[in-house]
């Protein structure tokens, strides 16, 4: 059986609540149905999207994460802004923008290296951009709006996300939205 999986930093309950409060505040600015908001339990910072992988290879992913965890100490990822991410001039995502720290970059690079050593194939991206998506803008809805009608979401924030573990999630796509199932959490 093929599982669609990714590695992420999973916020603790306190930070999840803070992020949820920001999401709720921004949600109130938009007409119903114009944004697909992230479910509270799905809030995370993606490290690596692996994609489809055979179930029997999950152990290789866990082994690579455990190997990585021995090389990286816990650290903090600072987030400083809520804003849109644009695609061709149109708001695509609403996210919390963070600082791509040296530790975060190192964590991603070491995890990629260890996955490759285990023979895991995934779409490798050059750098990590520290962000937490809180909403996906439905572009057909936003295109109906005049430019001045598009809600202003940009706001400075101060939030520090503890990176104390690597979480491996399975993403199950459902009609009502993705469901993320925690497969393993490995402490740093």
Please explain how this structure is put together.
It is built from 4 helices and 9 strands; from the N terminus they run βαββαββαβαβββ. It is of the alpha+beta class and 188 residues long. It has one domain: Cyclic phosphodiesterase (Cyclic Phosphodiesterase, Chain: A, Alpha-Beta Complex), CATH 3.90.1140. A 5-stranded antiparallel sheet has the order 2-6-5-4-7. A 4-stranded antiparallel sheet has the order 3-1-8-9, covered by helices on one side. A hairpin with a 6-residue loop joins strand 8 (165-172) and strand 9. The longest helix is centred in the middle third of the chain and has 16 residues, at 102-117. The radius of gyration is 17 Å and the shape is globular. The model has no long low-confidence stretch (mean pLDDT 95).
Number of helices: 4
Gyration radius, rounded:
17 Å
CATH superfamily: Cyclic phosphodiesterase
**Percent strand:** 35-45%
| CATH C-level class | Alpha Beta
Distance, first to last CA: 29 Å
Q: What is the spatial order of strands in the main beta sheet?
A: 2-6-5-4-7
- How are helices and strands ordered from N to C? EHEEHEEHEHEEE
Overall tally of domains: 1
Summarize the structure in short.
The chain has helices at residues 13-27, 58-69, 102-117, 139-142, and strands at 2-9, 35-37, 45-54, 75-87, 90-98, 131-137, 155-163, 165-172, 179-187.
């Amino acid at each position: 059986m093929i599982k669609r999986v990714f590695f992420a930093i999973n916020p603790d309950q306190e930070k999840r609540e803070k992020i949820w409060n920001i999401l709720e505040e921004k949600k109130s600015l938009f007409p119903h149905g114009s944004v697909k908001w992230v479910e509270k339990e799905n809030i995370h910072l993606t490290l690596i999207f692996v994609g489809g992988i055979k179930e029997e290879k999950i152990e290789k992913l866990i082994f690579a994460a455990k190997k990585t965890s021995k090389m990286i100490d816990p650290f903090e990822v600072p987030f400083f802004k809520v804003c849109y991410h644009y695609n061709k001039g149109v708001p695509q995502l609403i996210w919390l923008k963070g600082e791509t720290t040296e530790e975060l970059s190192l964590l991603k690079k070491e995890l990629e290296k260890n996955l490759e050593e285990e023979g895991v194939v995934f779409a490798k991206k050059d750098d990590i951009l520290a962000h937490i998506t809180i909403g996906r803008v439905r572009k057909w809805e936003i295109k109906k709006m005049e430019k001045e009608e598009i809600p202003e979401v940009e706001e400075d924030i101060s939030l520090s996300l503890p990176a104390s573990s690597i979480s491996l999630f399975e993403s199950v796509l459902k009609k009502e939205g993705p469901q993320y199932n925690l497969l393993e959490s490995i402490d740093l």
